[in-house]
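Convert to structure. Protein one:
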Amino acid sequence: MIDIYYINLDKSIERKEHIESQLKDVECNVHRFPATNGHMLDISQFDKYNSTKSKKYRKRELNKGQLGCFSSHYNLWQKCIEINKPILIIEDDIIIHTPVMNNFIESYKKGDLENYECIRLFNNRRRSVTYKQEKKLFGYYLVRYNKGLMGTQGYYITPRGASKLITESKEWFLPVDIYMDSFWINKVIPYGTLPACVSTQDEFESDIGYEQKNKRSLSHSLKREFYSLIQNFRRISFNIFNR
């Protein structure tokens, strides 16, 4: 049976109850994974954080919540490597679509997912995302996206995929979802399920919190656009040469 880890802050009792009530109907071993509360730490305690690069490429720093989120997922990648088997990672504010999730887990049991290092389980809310069908499995399709889905609400990860994510994250300067979406850097191709196994829950406010978008100077905006242009070129090139 596959292990599923849900990320949960110690203070977030309501979220804990919300996710555990849903997991009762999912065929898995359930583990609560204590989230890193970035707001309780000093920025200097995140030794992998590179504020210079963050300001250079994003024109703003990661806030404590974003660093805590990165740390939580990073620690679970390490856990995946440590136990040396695939795991499911979910956040505690999602809605689980139980039939699809159990179909996905059944595919895992049958060995249908052995060639895939990371599979997004959540619904796409991003515009201009396209996909191609990889294979039809019982109750859902496995697809490959042309770009990431900008989220970490839930995903399947193997030790090989986790190792790749860790190898290329020696320095943190992007939010963890943007880093995971940068598959031309980490070489972890963005697969997903249709329909989704989980979806976002709008009832809960973010436990992370995002910084206010400060007004940027023209030069900063141009530098950011240039960086985005380069990354888009790298993404398109990767997709062309890694079909």
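Protein two, convert as well:
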Amino acid sequence: MSEFVIKKVGKQPVIKDAVLVEGLPGIGNIARLSVDYLIDKLGAEKIIEIYSDVFPNSVTITDDSVIQMFNAELYHARVNNRDLLFLAGDVQPTSNDESYALCTKIIELVKGLGVKEVVTLGGIGLPENPAKTRVHAVVNDDSVRGSLKSLGLVFDGNETVKVILGVTGLLLGVAGLKGLKGFSLLAETLNQPGHVGVKEAREVLKVLTKHLGFELDFNDLDDEIKSFEQELSDEAAMSDKFSNEMISKRGYIG
């Protein structure tokens, strides 16, 4: 049986009718990018650290030669008198038992803190990078669908994606079993190791902030996307140049 250590950090806020937004690593790192951005923009404060044997049996070392254990963290922000909790972390469990254990612990924990709605984030891996990112939605209770109709989301059943792996899907399922309604936002992205879905995260953030009832200035994120796309363009140009040179050399040798 998995063990957990719940460490409270700083002054604990009074939380009421909160929304939990999950942002652990996954396809394109969309969830993590989105939640890290919200934590930074909203000035969310860390309130809880979650340690467990469901995380890797190793530690990282800081620049100051101090070790850090892998964990998950809860951050709190209040926007327009609405409490928001953000679940962040560097890793998620890889085995079935560990994933179930973590999701169950998190839902029990946040339900005790006053969470009433759960939102998970993730990506849908496609063989090619989509020209325009569509954001899909799935719900853990059909009654949730109505509140999402105005957000321009794709509800196509299991046509595009049939299974959601890891915490993104399972947390939503466990939430339903524990009496919490919620939904998942899934952005189409390139299914390629190392791909960073900054552009896709922006689309998820636009939908999420609209649902939560506040606005953010995404100019800095847009600048990051432009810079990232320029890097990709430069790399592609360099690759084409290298390929052409190799073709030329093969022609000369042959």
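The chain has two domains: 4-216, 220-254. The radius of gyration is 20 Å.
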